[in-house]
Fold Phosphoribosyltransferase.
Amino acid sequence: MKPFTESMLNQCRKYMFNFFDYLPTKYQASARDWQVRKFVWAFKDGKCAVSAAQLVAKKIREQFGTSASDMVFVCIPASSQRKNEIRYREFSEEVARLSGAVNGYSHITVEGERLAIHESKSGKHVNDVQVINFDKEFFKDKKVLVFDDVITRGYSYARFACHLESFGASVIGGMFLAKTLFV
């Protein structure tokens, strides 16, 4: 397991919200667990961006009210620019439209490709490198709400949030479709 720095731990102490509990496929699942799995998988494939955006935007409005218009909504990038576009372009636009938040999607791009975490445990070896490009000036002095589809331990979220804050952003917390359960 990768070590958390104190700054990363501080990110995990901020506002964190997940809509569902996600049971990994190595565990026997109930009908509800399968519903959640299928929703998360469909989201990752860009097949339910609008319904997921409605869910997220509603929670943003409930949690932040009119101050949502003072924050930037940004997603932790997927493993490639192509997957990032499929997963987050329409979703981010819709979340911003429905919540009043500023859409940060176009201010982060992905170069190269990395294996998704669930793929890297299979023993595959790759030499590809993923580079995430940030519009640093855009994020300076902005309040940012970070989104990711699934949070497991919080390492990716915390590292991404710390990176945003290194540009002068103020990360207010994170929202996630689902949180991995450990049985």
